[in-house]
Please model this.
Amino acid sequence: MTVARRICLGFMAAILAGAILLTLPISLADGEWGSFVTALFTSTSAVCVTGLTVVDTGTYFSSFGQGVIALLIQIGGLGYMTASSFLLLLLGRKFRLRDKVALQQSFDKPGMAGVLELVRSIIIATLIIETAGVFLLMLVFKPEYGSGRGLWLSVFHSISAFNNAGFGLFPDNLMQYVTSPIINFTITALIILGGIGYDTIVESYRWVRDRLKGRSGRSIFSLQFKVATTTTLFLLIFGTVLCFSTEIGNPATLEPLSIGGQVMAAWFQSVTCRTAGFNTIDIGKMTAAGIFVSIILMFIGACPGSTGGGIKTTTARVLFNTTQAVIEGRTQVLCYQRQIPPELVLKAVGVFIGSLMVAAISSTLIAISDPTISPIAIIFEVVSAFATVGLSMGITASLSTFAKLVLVATMYIGRVGVLLLLSAILGEPTPTALRYPDEEILVG
Model:
């Protein structure tokens, strides 16, 4: 049982357990037994922190069912290894060497030192950020829905936003709050913090702590921190400008809003495409250019070690720098005066090609089973599922059972990762001392 297999089977077990719970009469608002396909789709979407739904979460599921979904989102956002480690910490069990090795490999750390401290930091950071989100959202939900209902709406949406899930309890998601500054900036802040990566949050906390304690020494941020923050910032600004410019003349999205509302809606759309799945405008009525911009942002996704999906910002940055190196005639891939190891370049290429193949195969299968749906809507839905975003052009509920199962598989692959799933299936590679002669071929 390798680490890859433990992670893949762990996510699968959580999905199946959630599906069973969501079929129970207590989980449904009407008190009847639910459809297993609907429950499986919802459970997969929750554990994979995607947000695609075939039913209205707020009316189809009871309070118990919504609580199950929130718990599944939290487990999926933390990750199987982190969630199981947190459970062991609560039970007071000691970590075996095998558990520490599994954690070290799942976090992709060079050593086992500080792994348990990282788990504790992740849990503490999650609780602090989600609690802050609850208090801010209560400023809007409590006056409108009262203390009890307002508290639950705040808790659910805070968990969903920080874990980049995109599940909402309103029929129109958050479209009614398109001009609410508190909702817009609280939700986007939670999404960004959840998608920036726990390592980046911890490194930022240490920098602030050192400054508050008067340690004025020069801070040396890691390459991971620099790439994650700068690439994220660029994509957020780039996405906002493009969303604004492509939708400003669209009477179904931004045109009816004031200039402040248009900028805020464009900002929200740019952030939520980073694997979150909330929406304050009607996605199905966006322009073709706006849809393509959203697909690009969704495919890139969030940062490694975060609650988000996609090929990840670091992967896109490595591929960009590799292309730059080829254009400049260099054999070394450089980033912030550091050389990227060839192994990471190969991994980035593998993630990119594997992701394209999954998206292409899933889109083809859905196009065969549902030929009446437009190709752009299918591609949008598949990329949203693979990148665990949750945005939809409104076709999810009308898909055939086969297409829904294809999306279930796509969401699962997107959450555990293409390379990790292949490693779980094929097993660990066998080291070899064989070396083969070089021979050139024509490329490009």
The mean pLDDT is 89. The radius of gyration is 22 Å. The chain has 17 helices and two strands. The first strand starts at residue 334 and ends at 335.
